[in-house]
Amino acid sequence: MNSVESVENEANGLLQQGEHGVDQYLTFVMEDDEYGVDILCVQEIRGWEDTTPIPNAPGFVKGVINLRGTIVPIIDIRQCFNMQETTYGSLTVVIVLRANHEAGSRTIGIVVDAVSDVHSFSESDLHSPPSLGNSVNTSYIKGLAQAGQNMVILLDIDRALNFDELQGFMDVQPEADAAPSNS
């Protein structure tokens, strides 16, 4: 059994346990940092496969895949988080998620370096993200939690995978670097 199957099996077991007052998060790694998404949003974990590019799509949209008849956009959230691009390899994983928006729900895949683990956090384990002013948008962060020696950044998938807001995250610039206004 490979590591993806192992994490999927553990996640399924945790979902069946249904611990009261505790939420489970699938964690993954990007640039040595650990991030987490609510396990209830996770539909599937897949290895990287080539995508069909969409003309004129933002750079963070790597293309689409056909997932059993559903066309799923694949997003490289490294680019949305202004991280250095990387070459996709054998450990690169796509986490297929269901995000909710005003218009309904949407299935989206996110490219991550590797799947890490499944952690359980209660509401009291979560810390609010720090306020960093207008130069850093943290609205997509649900909270921060400690898992052993690692700090896990828990993402609000419904906000993080909103295409309009994704583009906005990439457009935010530090105030010193912002273009002068013509007012």
Question: Could you characterize the architecture of this molecule?
Answer:
Helices cover 17% and strands 41% of the residues. It is of the alpha+beta class. The chain has a single domain (3-171), classed as CheA-289, Domain 4 (OB fold (Dihydrolipoamide Acetyltransferase, E2P), Beta Barrel). The strands form 2 sheets. It has a 5-stranded mixed sheet. The radius of gyration is 17 Å and the shape is globular. The model is unreliable at 14-18 and 167-183 (pLDDT under 50).
Short description:
The protein contains four helices and ten strands, in the order αβββββαβββββαα. The C terminus is likely disordered.
Per-chain topology:
Layout: H1 3-17, E1 22-30, E2 33-38, E3 42-47, E4 61-67, E5 70-76, H2 77-80, E6 93-101, E7 104-112, E8 114-122, E9 141-147, E10 150-155, H3 157-160, H4 163-171
Parallel strand pairs: 2-10, 5-7
Antiparallel strand pairs: 1-2, 1-8, 3-6, 4-5, 6-7, 9-10
Strand content: 35-45%
Estimate the mean pLDDT confidence. Answer: 80
Class, according to the CATH hierarchy? Answer: Mainly Beta
CATH superfamily: CheA-289, Domain 4
N-C termini distance: 61 Å
- CATH fold topology: OB fold (Dihydrolipoamide Acetyltransferase, E2P)
Number of domains: 1
Q: In which range does the helix fraction lie?
A: 10-25%
- The general outline is globular
Provide the succession of SSEs.
Answer: HEEEEEHEEEEEHH
Task: List the total number of helices.
Answer: 4
Catalogue the unreliable spans. Answer: 14-18, 167-183
CATH architecture: Beta Barrel
What composes the largest sheet? 5 strands, mixed
Tell how many strands the DSSP assignment holds. Answer: 10
Q: Which class of secondary structure composition applies to the elements?
A: alpha+beta
Strands side by side in the biggest sheet: 8-1-2-10-9
Q: Over all CA atoms, what is the radius of gyration?
A: 17 Å
